[in-house]
Structure formats: structure tokens, C-alpha cells
Design a protein that fits this description.
Chain lengths: ~725, ~375
């Protein structure tokens, strides 16, 4: 196709290839044409390497994983060659294997770990049975296999006896995922393919599992293919990185090379669009446009419609691999120009120029939470109740003020109560203790039920934007109906034409054009970004005072997140609303809080442990938990991370929270006093910055300093 | 966007007394055009101008609305059903019955005993195409004239089942709490009533009403709605926790709207299939009860025909087979037609299919839901 293809291939040393894909495509026949979800891909996986495959959702990365095992679901058709070369023995063409051979191949030679650990287990079988079934299905010696399983489990910092006798529901998400990794390794495969293995997990757990993978790989001589949308996560784990865009590889090369010197315009744009903790905010910008539809992939280079460098050559011919350095191939005609013209945000550091945030409060808080408690479940009422006390305290005594035009980002692991707290703040969840006031009026005053506020005005003032735009819009209603309804309810004075005008105006305002076309669509005809924008303007149409944005960008593609956050900030400004964001991702939190001069609040097991301006929380965290979160947020271009600043990676059971400071079970700094006394908030801010931390270490004078450290030698 | 850098450290019992101040005149309290005057930040991908001031150039007239209504409820369903053979066959079958019950009764004369010779076989004479009974009645005429009452009975029974069942199911599922407990108890009581004995008892008690096909249809469906209510309740329980319902509640939309427009559309395919099943059950029950002689009868009826044929020994008299077969075919035919129709109506309620049959948008996006399948393959 292009001249340099042969150069690129010969430049590569003849090395030890485990899996080789040649011209591999996966196609689905659809009503409106053939959909190519993997488009003539060439790829080689080297023995004993960790290769990270990065792609946004819908870039074909899961198909790539399935194609390697010839496990493409019906009615997809895999064409081309997939060759597996065992260490000793003849190469095997995976696509030609019989069903029985495939069955053996799939677990014994190449094994796979999927994203949803939750659904990979049979809930009625204990973990031991899962191992035994896997071993006997492949005619392995069960006793020896269980021995190996024990070894694997303890390598993954799990207690083998407890794990093997547990049922899946008794394990946390992180434990399940680790058990799944052990299960996939029990037959001693050569290659482990991991498809988003940590996507459903918390940051701390993700980091911990990723750092375990390195050890596991060394110990068991594995080759790992790690597929993810999260570039920073694999950046320091992988030896090589491969970037997938629109069902093709855009760039393949050694990790450092890709991060420091990316050659493909898409890689460079993707790096710029990934929020992180250190790059200046001005450098972060979204990628314009959207990923192409698999039915009509653009001719030539599939990135050309979004690429600033595209010219006629890009439209006419598919760029073959150009050699951009040792083992670094890039599929772009203009990669040299791209290196020169497109800046990389990560090249420069620490040249920060953001406006200082700490400013005085408007006299009255807009929404004020005082000592809010929310518990779920039923208590043992003692009388003929033989069940155990099953209450879970989701929020335990949180006080918080949100002001006019304020931005507050709540950060924490899943299950820490941040969503419950958020929903309580906007009156969608009735607290079991404490009070919530909206402009000095208790919002639950006068309402008997548990689900509805009595005061209409307060109800209108407090709104919510959900995480998954796919389910927050009713799939049976057109955009017109979805947007008309709140207007009909709150602006009954408008007639049909006025409503329509307002809706069209709003759609245009958020960049959905042509609006006349979009109002007639159903949600499934919109992309994720468009759906989220519709959900956002639906709440904006009734002019609320406080909007809870519950992980409102997590469900979107990496390249769209910055754009969506910018839009929210823009709308906040235009409509004079306050935002309560919820995020599990410190880098998104930083972006939002720093850009608006807002605050970040860190939650742990139902309590707020630290609140402060973005700069302080990111640059100078005081609470050990904030430090751990900071550690867990992967950073590009940072190497050789120190050991995790936590003693154990598993969160304590929320049904039985630890006494004293709730973090003491994991805190590396915990001392005896932490197990009994609960720390109060301490002001650690200064003239310009707000920061309050709930940790004894913030105090100069405290019994803490005389207390003994908790003995824990592990 | 303007910020000041002054800092004010005040003591307070709330954990965060310092917040960024914005221009203080902002107060988002007014429900009207609160955003009439906006200050915009830099950057962003959006257009300019205040959102509430941008006006659209197109005016929508009454004609547009009528057209949209027709498009929504006539053209699109028709366009979907046209492509589906089940819909076409179902439509034809049901239309034949409807025509038989409306126009047919005027075209075919009523018959009386000794209108013709006894037991003429089917397709033997042009005067009696479907033959005659042992009393010399015209079978075609009997069949046609029983259609109206059967259709009315069937419709009333089905509508009753679906309306009551859906109402109970949706309200109990959505409301929860005391309402749920009370209505669910009523539902459970009805589930546990043995249907057939109840109908027999009621039929004797309400003898004057029983000849009215509408009340008869309701009577026959009296125990059927409870099961539907239970099934719908469980589905509503899962839908009510979806984000879009929570959003609707946050926006304080009326409960009626949430139930009828947010939740019920998701259940429509299920409801329609149940409606058709209810209709079938009513016919079968009615025919069975007429056949058993439990229900009093005055005029022609497919069940009564079966009963008469059976009593005349049609089971072992080849010359009377047609007497038995014609009502049986009539009953099976309507059941088949309804099922085909219900199956095809499923597609009418699917927004993806609806969208494809309109000229808006680009149809279906590709979402190969591959992961689960791939997982299955690993678990061989």
C-alpha cells in the first residue's frame, strides 16, 4: 500500500513471537451493511512481554481480544490468520482449530480475564468448585491444581483457605477480580489476555492489582496482553503500547516512546484529552468529533475527519506503518509533522497559572447539610427476630455547605457513601439523621413520604444528572418529549411553539446541531456525549440552583470527558447554578475544582475526611487517605512508583465499620489512639487556600504523637 | 467569570465556610428567565448567545402537529407491520372475523330448525356451504351469528384483565409502602380464588346479567387479572429504580405522567401479549362452559354448537363431523390470528424499530453485545 511498509517490518528484529495476527478482520452483517469491528489488523505479541492495548469504547479492542482466541461471538466472522507459536512445537493456526482443540487452547495456552468479575462466577458454587470444575474439565490433576491455586491466591494477597470456601457474593469486587486472575492462571497458560480487568474497580484496587500483575508475570513466565481505555493505568506497567483507533492500530511502540514521543496525531490528542493531576489545565482539550461508525469507516486514514493535519493523501490512501523509531510503528502519513505541530501537554510540567480559589463565603449557604446520617437495612428489633442486625451506615455524620455558584467535588472509593450523600443533598434520599436546609428551610419539612419533597420550589431547585446517560433518558421517548416535559411542568405559561423554540435554542447552545433533526430522535440514535448533553440541558431548562452530577463523565469516552466538563462549567456560569460533582477519579475532580475555583471533598466509609481547594488536596494532602488516593491516580510519565501507602488494599466491611478513625485499619500512620478516638476536622488551610483535614496528624499537640504505632509488620 | 482573592476566615460550625465567591447579584431563585443575562467563560465548544434568547425560525402550526400525530400513530406502525408476515396474516385473520361479526350478520340470514335437509355435509350444496345440523339448521349462519357476541365478550374480558392488572401492578410496584401492601393483598386473594368454581357460582347468581356478552367477558376474566398484576409489579420494581424515573421524580413530574408515560411504555410488549392471551382464555373458557352447559344460552354460539354436535353423536358419526369441525376451526382461527398480531405488535413498541421506519436520524447504532457471549465461550 505504501512504500515504507516493508521498511518497517524488516527493521524489526527477528524475535520471539507468541501470537501473531495477520490481516485479521472481524465482520458483522447488519441490516444496513457489513460492519467491520476489526479492520485488517497486523499485530505481534512477543513472548514474556506486557503489551498494553489502548482504545476508546467502540474502537474494537474487545474484538481484538476475542479474535486472538477465535472467540468472536456469533454471528461475527473472523477472517485472516491468527497464529499461536508455543515455546516448543509447531505454530498453531488458531482459526483452523476444531471445537475441542479450541476448548483446550483457550484455557491451557491462552487464558482470558474479563471486565465484569461479578458475572464470571456462578453464584451457587463456592470458589473451590470453580477451580475444581476448571481443572477436571481440562483433565488436570485436581489436588496439584488446588495446590497451585492456593499459591496463586496468596501471591495475590488473598487468604487461600478463606477464599476457597467462600461463595462469590461473600467477596468484594476487588477480591473477585483477583480470584478470577488466579482462576485463569491455574492451568498454567502461556499468555494471559485481560480485557479491561480493572475497569469496574476502585482506583486504589486498580493500582494494587496492576502492581501485582508485574510480580505474577515474573513468577509465572507470562505474556500479558492488557486491554484498557485508561492510558495512564497501563503506562508504567506495559513494555509496549498499542493504540487502537476505529478498529485499526494507529500506533505501536515501546511505552516510553509512545508517552514521550507519540507520533500519531490521535495518540497526541488522546494524551492531551486525558485529565491528570499535574499537567496545566490549559493544555487539556477534548478531541473534536466522534469515533466513526463501523459500517462506514472513512476511506484512507480512519482518523482523517478529526485530524488537524489531514490532507488529500489521508483521504485517498490508508497509511501503512511508518517507522518512527526502533520498534515504533505509526500509521500516519504525516507523523513527522505531527510530532512538530501538535503539542504534548505532558512535555511541560509545573508551569501552573490558575486563579487562586479561596474566597469568602456568600453569607448564606444555598444548601446546608448538618450532621447528616443515612442508614440502610433493618435493625434487629429483638422481638422474634432471629436475623442479624443488618444496617449499613452509608453516611455517618457529614456536615457540608454548598453556596451559590459553588462547585464541590466529592471523591472516594465506591461504597464510601458519596452518591448517597449527594442524593441526600438534593432531596432524593431521606436522611435518617441530621438535617438538610435549602436557604434556611428544612427541605423535608412537611413531607410525610420518603420519596417526595413537600415544597415545590425546593424540588425544582435541586436537580440531578446521572452517571449513565443511556438510562437517565427514557428510551421510549423522543428528545422532544424528554425536554418538553420539565418545561410543561415548570413553565405552564409557555405554549407549544415557545417550548419548541426554547428547546431548539438550548440544543443549539450545547452544540447539538441541527436541533430540528435531533428533537425527533430517540435516545439510542444519539451518541453517549449527546445523550449526556440532553440530560444536562433537561435539568438546566427548569433553572435549578444546585445540580448533583453523579459521575456524570465516567461513562463517556476519554476523549469526550474534558469537553463535557468544560460544557458543565460553562453552563454553571451561564445559569448561575451550583454543582455538586461526584467522582471516583481524582484527576477529573481536580480538573473541575481547579477550573472553577471549587473545593474537593474526600469521603471514606461514610465520613468526610478532608475538604479543601483543588490545589491543596492535590499538591499537599494532609489526610493519609487522600495521599493514598493521590498515589492510586495513575500519572503519565512517572516511573518507579513507591509501595502503596496503605497497609491493606481491601476496604473494611461497611456493616461493621472500624472504631475510632475509620481509616485506621489501612492507614500506614495509624497509632493506638486512632483505634479508639475519632478525629475532628482541623483547619490546615492558610491565607489563600482552604483545607480541613480529619486526622490527628494535622495537630501539633495531640496524644497521637505519644501513642504507639499499630504493630503491623506486613 | 470573575473571582476576587480576598480571604475571610470566619469561625463556623460547618466544615467549609470558605467558598469561592461569584458575583453576588446571582440568585437563581426565579423560576422564569433566570438566565436572561449571562456571563460566559472562555473556551468551550458551544455557540454564542443566551440560551433562552435564541429563537428558532420555524413556527409549528396546527397542521404540523396533526401530521406529527398521524406519523406517530398511523404511518409508522403501518410501515413497521407492513414488513412483517405475521402481522399481515394476523391482520387478515382478525379482519375476517371482524367483518363476519359486523357485515356478515347482515349478509347471512338467520336460520331456524328445518331450514334445510338434515345433516348436509360441508361443501355439498351451494345453499348450505358449510352443511346443516341434524335439526336442519344452516351451520354457516350459526357460525356467523355467534361471532358478534363472542367478539364482544372476548374484548371486554381482555380489556378488563389488562386495565385492572396493569393498574394494580404499576401502582403497587411504583408506590410501595402501605399502598403496595394493601393492593398486593387484594391481588393475592384474587390469585388464590379458584377460577372455574367461582365463575360457575357467579353464573348462577347473576343469571340476568350473564346473557350480556360484556358482563360475561368480565366475569370470565375475574380471576385472570391478578396474575398479570403480580408480573407487572415485579417488572415495575426494577424500572422504578432506573435513573430516568429518578430524574422524573426530581423534576416533580406528576405520578400519573411517570406511570403512564415513563414506565408503561417499557411494559407495552408484555401487556399486549397478555391482552391477547387474556382474549384467548376468555374464548376458551366461554366455549368450555357453554359446552359443559354451565352457562345458560339463548342464541347461537360456537360452544353451544359444539355441545349440540357432541350430543348428536358427532364424535362417531362421520356424517356429522363438519358440525363439530366448523366451530372448532372458528375458535382456533381467531386464537391464531390474535397471537400473530400480538407478536408483531411487539415491534411497534420498540423505539429502535420505530426509528428505522422514520426518516429521522441514522437508524441503529452498532452495539455488538459481545462480552457475555465471549465469556460463555471461555466457560466451555
Amino acid at each position: 500500500m505504501t512504500l515504507s511498509r516493508s521498511d518497517a517490518s524488516t527493521a524489526r528484529p527477528a524475535d520471539d513471537v507468541v501470537i501473531e495476527l495477520r490481516d485479521t478482520s472481524v465482520e458483522y452483517g447488519m441490516d444496513r451493511g457489513t460492519s467491520k469491528v476489526l479492520n485488517e489488523v497486523d499485530f505481534e505479541v512477543q513472548r514474556d512481554e506486557i503489551v498494553g492495548v489502548i482504545g476508546e469504547s467502540g474502537s474494537g479492542k474487545s474484538m481484538f481480544a476475542s479474535a486472538m482466541l477465535d472467540a468472536v461471538p456469533e454471528p461475527g466472522v473472523t477472517t485472516g490468520e491468527v497464529i499461536y507459536r508455543p515455546e516448543d512445537g509447531e505454530p498453531v493456526s488458531v482459526t483452523d482449530l476444531s471445537k475441542e482443540e479450541l476448548r483446550r487452547f483457550r484455557w491451557e495456552e491462552v487464558s482470558m480475564v474479563f471486565q465484569g468479575a461479578m458475572s464470571s462466577f456462578n453464584p451457587v458454587m463456592d470458589i473451590r468448585t470453580h477451580f475444581v470444575e476448571t481443572l477436571s474439565a481440562h483433565d488436570y490433576d485436581v489436588d496439584r491444581g488446588i495446590e497451585r491455586a492456593r499459591e496463586l491466591l496468596s501471591d495475590l494477597y488473598l487468604d487461600p483457605d478463606r477464599m476457597l470456601d467462600s461463595y462469590p457474593h461473600e467477596l468484594s469486587g476487588g477480591m473477585k477480580q483477583r480470584v478470577l486472575i488466579a482462576l485463569s492462571l491455574v492451568l498454567e497458560p502461556e499468555v494471559l489476555v485481560m480485557d479491561e480487568p480493572t475497569a469496574a474497580l476502585d482506583l486504589l484496587m486498580q493500582r494494587s492489582i496492576v502492581s501485582l500483575l508485574e510480580e505474577i508475570k515474573e513468577k509465572h513466565d507470562l505474556t500479558i496482553v492488557f486491554i484498557t481505555h485508561d492510558l495512564p493505568l497501563v503506562a508504567d506497567l506495559a513494555d509496549r503500547l498499542a493504540v487502537l483507533y476505529a478498529f485499526e492500530f494507529a500506533e505501536v511502540g515501546p511505552s516510553e516512546d509512545i508517552l514521550e514521543n507519540p507520533a500519531h496525531p490521535y495518540t497526541r490528542a488522546l494524551l492531551n484529552a486525558t485529565p491528570n493531576l499535574s499537567a496545566p489545565l490549559e493544555e487539556m482539550r477534548p478531541i473534536e468529533g466522534e469515533s466513526p461508525d463501523p459500517v462506514n469507516i472513512p476511506d484512507g486514514c480512519s482518523y482523517h475527519p478529526r485530524c488537524p493535519l489531514s490532507d488529500e493523501q489521508c483521504v485517498e490512501s490508508d497509511p501503512g506503518p511508518y517507522d518512527a523509531g526502533p520498534e515504533h510503528d505509526v500509521h500516519c502519513h504525516h507523523w513527522e509533522q505531527s510530532v512538530e505541530d501538535i503539542d504534548v501537554a505532558f512535555a511541560e510540567t509545573d508551569e501552573r497559572a490558575f486563579t487562586s480559589a479561596a474566597e469568602k463565603a456568600v453569607d448564606e449557604p444555598l444548601v446546608s447539610l448538618s450532621d447528616v446520617e443515612v442508614t440502610f437495612g433493618s435493625e434487629n428489633d429483638g422481638w422474634l427476630d432471629f436475623g442479624e442486625d443488618e444496617t449499613v451506615s452509608a453516611v455517618d455524620g457529614v456536615s457540608l455547605d454548598v453556596y451559590e455558584n459553588d462547585v464541590l467535588v466529592l471523591v472516594g472509593e465506591s461504597g464510601c457513601g458519596k452518591t448517597t450523600l449527594g442524593k441526600t443533598a438534593v432531596g432524593l434520599q431521606r436522611p435518617t439523621g441530621g438535617s438538610i436546609e435549602y436557604r434556611q428551610r428544612d427541605i423535608w419539612e412537611g413531607s410525610g413520604g420518603t420519596s417526595s419533597l413537600a415544597d415545590e420550589e425546593i424540588r425544582r431547585a435541586l436537580q440531578i444528572v446521572h452517571q449513565d446517560p443511556g438510562s437517565s433518558l427514557n428510551s421510549h421517548q423522543r428528545v422532544r418529549t424528554i425536554l418538553e416535559q420539565p418545561l410543561k411542568r415548570w413553565h405552564p405559561e409557555l405554549d407549544g411553539n415557545d417550548r419548541r423554540e426554547r428547546i431548539l435554542g438550548m440544543l443549539e447552545y450545547v452544540g447539538i446541531t441541527p436541533p430540528e433533526d435531533y428533537v425527533e430522535r430517540y435516545p439510542h440514535q444519539l451518541s453517549g456525549g449527546e445523550q449526556q448533553r440532553i440530560a444536562l440541558i433537561r435539568t438546566m431548562l427548569i433553572n435549578p440552583d444546585l445540580i448533583l452530577a453523579d459521575e456524570a463523565v465516567s461513562a463517556l469516552d476519554v476523549s469526550l470527558r474534558v469537553g463535557m466538563m468544560d460544557l458543565m462549567i460553562e453552563l454553571q456560569d451561564a445559569f448561575d447554578t451550583s454543582f455538586l460533582f461526584i467522582s471516583h477519579d481524582l484527576s477529573n475532580a481536580r480538573y473541575l475544582a481547579e477550573k472553577t475555583g471549587g473545593r474537593i471533598g474526600v469521603m471514606y466509609l461514610g465520613r468526610l475526611v478532608e475538604v479543601g481547594s483543588a490545589e491543596r488536596i492535590i499538591q499537599n494532602p494532609q489526610h493519609p487517605y487522600t495521599k493514598a488516593l493521590r498515589w492510586a491516580t495513575p500519572e503519565l510519565g512517572e516511573e518507579a512508583r513507591e509501595d502503596p501507602p496503605i497497609r491493606t488494599i481491601d476496604i473494611p466491611d461497611a456493616q461493621d465499620p472500624p472504631s475510632g478513625c475509620r481509616y485506621h485499619t489501612r492507614c500506614p500512620e495509624a497509632r493506638e489512639v486512632c483505634t479508639t478516638e475519632s478525629p475532628e476536622f482541623v483547619d490546615v488551610g492558610d491565607e489563600t487556600q482552604i483545607q480541613r483535614s480529619a486526622c490527628f496528624r494535622a495537630l501539633d499537640e495531640h496524644p497521637y504523637w505519644q501513642s504507639d504505632p499499630i504493630a503491623d509488620d506486613s | 467569570m470573575k473571582r476576587s482573592d480576598d480571604d475571610d476566615r470566619r469561625a463556623g460550625d460547618s466544615i467549609d465556610e470558605f467558598v469561592p465567591a461569584r458575583p453576588a447579584e446571582s440568585s437563581g431563585g426565579s423560576a422564569g428567565d433566570g438566565a436572561a443575562e449571562t456571563v460566559r467563560s472562555d473556551g468551550g465548544t458551544v455557540g454564542s448567545g443566551s440560551p433562552f434568547e435564541t429563537t428558532s425560525s420555524t413556527e409549528e402550526t396546527r397542521g404540523d402537529r396533526v401530521r406529527r400525530f398521524l406519523d406517530e400513530f398511523v404511518r409508522t406502525p403501518w410501515s413497521i407491520l407492513r414488513d412483517d408476515w405475521r402481522a399481515l396474516v394476523g391482520f387478515v385473520i382478525v379482519s375476517v372475523y371482524v367483518l363476519m361479526g359486523t357485515v356478515g350478520v347482515y349478509l347471512v340470514e338467520t336460520t331456524s330448525p328445518a331450514a334445510g335437509p338434515k345433516l348436509v355435509g360441508a361443501f355439498q350444496s351451494s345453499e348450505f356451504p358449510l352443511g346443516t345440523t341434524s335439526a336442519g339448521k344452516d351451520i354457516l349462519s350459526l357460525t356467523v351469528h355467534s361471532t358478534p357476541s363472542i367478539m364482544i365478550m372476548m374484548t371486554s374480558g381482555a380489556v378488563f384483565t389488562v386495565v385492572v392488572g396493569t393498574l394494580f401492578g404499576v401502582v403497587t410496584g411504583y408506590k410501595g409502602g402501605l399502598v403496595d401492601t394493601a393492593l398486593s393483598t387484594i391481588t393475592d386473594v384474587f390469585i388464590n380464588i379458584p377460577g372455574l368454581p367461582l365463575v360457575i357460582v357467579l353464573a348462577t347468581l347473576l343469571e340476568e346479567w350473564i346473557n350480556n356478552p360484556v358482563t360475561l367477558g368480565v366475569l370470565l376474566a375475574i380471576a385472570a387479572w391478578a396474575g398479570l398484576a403480580r408480573a407487572i409489579r415485579s417488572q415495575v420494581l426494577t424500572i422504578r429504580s432506573e435513573s430516568f424515573v429518578e430524574s422524573a421524580r426530581a423534576m416533580d413530574l406528576s405520578t400519573r405522567w411517570i406511570l403512564s408515560r415513563e414506565i408503561v411504555p417499557h411494559l407495552m410488549p408484555y401487556i399486549v401479549v397478555n391482552m391477547v392471551n387474556a382474549a384467548r382464555r376468555v374464548i376458551f373458557a366461554a366455549v368450555a362452559l357453554y359446552f359443559l352447559g354451565v352457562l345458560p344460552f339463548s342464541d347461537a354460539n360456537w360452544g353451544v354448537m359444539l355441545n349440540n354436535a357432541y350430543n348428536a353423536g358427532a364424535l362417531y358419526r362421520p356424517s356429522a363431523y363438519h358440525w363439530l369441525l366448523v366451530p372448532m376451526i372458528a375458535i382456533s382461527g381467531i386464537a391464531l390470528g390474535l397471537i400473530l398480531l400480538a407478536q408483531s405488535l411487539d415491534r411497534v413498541f420498540n423505539p429502535r424499530v420505530r426509528a428505522r421506519h422514520q426518516n429521522t436520524g441514522d437508524g441503529e447504532r452498532l452495539e455488538p453485545d459481545t462480552e457475555d457471549d465471549a465469556k460463555d465461550m471461555m466457560n466451555v
